[in-house]
Amino acid sequence: MASIFELPDDLLATLIESFPCRDAQIRALATLLYPRAAPCRNLIVHGTEATGKSTVTARLLKELSSPRADTDDSLLNYAIVKSAECVTARHLFERTVGSVADALQWEESGTVGRCETLAALTVELTKLLTYDQRHDKDWRFVLVFDGIDRQRDAPPTLLPALARLSELIPNLTTIFILTAPSPSLLHVSSTPQLYFPPYTKPEYVTILSRPPYTPSPLPNTTAQETTDLWTRFAAAVHDALSKPASRTLPGLARSCAALWPRFTAPVSAGTYRAREFTKLLVAARAYFQDESVLEPGITLASKPTTSLTKPSSTTTSNGAKTGENEWSRSTKDLATLLPPTARLLLVAAYLASHNAPRHDQTIFSTWHSGRRRRGGGSLGQHTRVSKKAKHRKIARKLLGPSAFVLERMVAIYAATRSEWVRDGAYEDQVGVDGDVGMAIATLASLRLLVRVGGAGGAGDTMDRGGKWRVGVGWEVIRGVGRSMGVEVEEWLVE
Question: What pTM, to 2 d.p., does this model score?
């Protein structure tokens, strides 16, 4: 039995090749738009940002509107109106009438008058589409409103009125491209909806493994080896940066393009081969953790002007100097922007969150030890611990922070400040910037210290009995400590 549908299969095959992982959406869209298939009156195309809604729709309409082989005319014409380019509702109406007149090559397109209301829009579109006798009975016109849910100054009846146009104009199909439609959006029943879901990880890798995203072959490497390395590299970038930096396909493509030269530097230098993906990933792990590689304008590295000793640099396999990179990362943001008192309090808060209170007297009391304490980590090996603690496999600095009382953090700050300042280069600065209350308020406003308990964490900042929790991790606090010449790990009890 022959099919009643006459979809241009060769055209669809070309589109599916151009837009991988969107074959189901392309076939459904062509079926609902092609005049000799199953054309509909209204269609809602929805999905999140950068899922191919607008691009696939525009490309499909362009191919479907091409002239037929047996005649110079086509079965379909279309016009696309982008709401982002329309300032007001009146601007949208006049842009719609002008786009339809241009698509039909209307002789009087330059004389289209003012269109300020929905009623005037209906009259103008009816005059353009209903009384045009130049096309056969199968001819249809597709009117696309791209991003119509974000139209500024739109009346509440805009979408239902636009959906009623197809009832007055039989050969009209209206497409609404939206982000998240509501169930009663058009006030019209039985409106088909076509969903463009977000890309999954295998789909991301498939798309990035095709032109124009694939890179040129690396030196001393075949094209197939470069393609295989690029495929595994794209998957690694997706796992590392998908949520914070590349939630969309363009974002992931930009991240891969920025990291690819640094990732393949050891291959170009001849240190590693393209097949040694694990070694390349370990050598480039710092680039996957540094936001400045993707967005250089967000954080600017600046070296301190104090007399701290700069660590010696060692050259890695990819040509980068690990000592200089680590020094630059450790002196960014918090290590350079926070005043000395705030930095000392932040380190004290980290120690209060990750050390048990029973160890405070042993670590921070000079009377108990008989000498100035350094090396809390080694001290923990001689401290009596329970049987359960002996079998703990995870380092304390890798566990989540615990809540502490504000009085305990200030006590740790007072006990350690004299030693840390004497060993560092900030002894003359702490005496000037000695407002502990202001430093605590600053850390709380930056969410580096988080108040826990109570109604939403509200209350007096300097309440001695208030409970807090440090809001930074180990990598950040290690950089803050090293900027003052303090190895925080020596003060942690394992």
Answer: 0.60
